[in-house]
Design a protein that fits this description.
The complex is a heterodimer of chains A (231) and B (93). Chain A is mainly alpha-helical. Chain A has six helices and two strands, in the order ββαααααα. The longest helix of chain B has 41 residues. The chains are: A mainly alpha (231), B mainly alpha (93). At the A-B interface, helix 5 and helix 6 of A face helix 2 of B.
């Protein structure tokens, strides 16, 4: 029983292995990058625009609004990172309708890599917003005794992100594989639809959690009022 | 019982128990979360997007606990290091 796409070996030379995870990750990257480049070749600003441009605009404005709702006031600074996380995980899950495809997020290496990206991005955005001293001060925030707990919570949040995504994706593919050997006709279709739903929800959760962690790191100690109150 | 039987029995029983006991807590927690979200939606329908988003994030966090138990159970059944070690020993003999 195959536990992850790591075990699908396409090509091997010595210790260099081209396994399913790498091939499908690169295929997804190719589709996303080349697709976006082709769609945005001739952008139009008037009312007449291609449907693909419309689709991309819906996606981009939707993600921007979600980032703003979470509490990050300038979404254009973060949408590169957070939008890519969401689109990669969502496309990886959506493509399971293609036969022969295994989502690369069903391998712990991919999800660990994505979680490590979030682990690096949170201090990066935090230091960019608050400066090095301000960001490091947030670790001793309530009292100095909380310093080890804050550090442990950073690491455990990363681990939880990785294992949550991996567990959801792996369980979806494994349930499908087991059901195909038991009741091969109608029931696996229902479970496949459920797998698609959980894939989209997990993509949303991953990016929203990353946004919440970044918002917690970039939020200043004293928040400025939104508008001056006229007496 | 020899080593192989003991490892097999322990792995199978533990795998079943892990996923059985590990699903009780998250299921109860998610039920309570959704119930509270529904009642606050009924009280303030115009905060629906915020409540729904917070509900989904909370449900994902609760679900992670069940996922951890599932992963442990899968490791015990399919990627069991003790079983692999013992099988490799008997294959080598």
């Amino acid at each position: 029983m195959r536990l992850s796409p790591d075990e699908m070996i396409f090509w091997q030379h010595g210790f260099l292995k081209l396994n399913g995870t790498i091939v499908f990750t690169w295929a997804l990257m190719f589709v996303l990058a080349v697709g976006s480049k082709v769609v945005t070749r001739k952008l139009s600003t008037d009312l007449k625009r291609s449907r693909w441009q419309n689709l991309l605009e819906i996606v981009v404005t939707g993600i921007e609004k979600q980032i703003e709702d979470v509490g990050l006031p300038h979404p254009e600074k973060y949408i590169g990172f957070l939008g890519t996380l969401f689109l990669f995980v969502a496309l990886a899950s959506l493509c399971t309708v293609i036969p022969g495809y295994e989502p690369p997020t069903g391998s712990l290496s991919t999800t660990a890599a994505l979680a490590l990206c979030v682990l690096v991005a949170v201090p990066f955005f935090g230091i960019e917003e608050q400066g090095l001293g301000g960001y490091l001060k947030s670790y001793v925030e309530p009292t100095v005794i909380m310093l080890p707990f804050n550090i442990i919570s950073e690491l455990s949040r990363t681990l939880a992100l990785a294992v949550r995504l991996f567990g959801n994706m792996m369980s979806g593919t494994m349930i499908l594989a087991i059901l195909l050997t038991i009741t091969p006709f109608i029931f696996p279709i229902a479970m496949s639809a459920l797998g698609l739903l959980t894939g989209m929800v997990q993509a949303y959760i991953f990016s929203i959690l990353a946004a919440v962690y970044i918002a917690a790191a970039t939020r200043g100690r004293k928040s400025k009022p939104m508008r001056d109150i006229k007496a | 019982m020899d080593n192989i039987t003991l490892i097999a029995v322990a792995s199978i029983v533990t795998a079943g128990l892990t996923i059985a006991l590990g699903s009780i807590g998250p299921a109860l927690g998610e039920g309570r979360a959704v119930a509270t979200a529904l009642s606050s939606l009924a009280q303030q329908p115009d905060a629906a997007t915020t409540i729904t988003r917070t509900l989904f994030v909370g449900l994902a966090m609760i679900e992670s606990i069940a996922i951890y138990c599932f992963v442990v159970s899968m490791i015990l059944i399919f990627a069991n290091p003790f079983w692999n070690h013992v099988i490799a020993q008997t294959a080598g003999k």
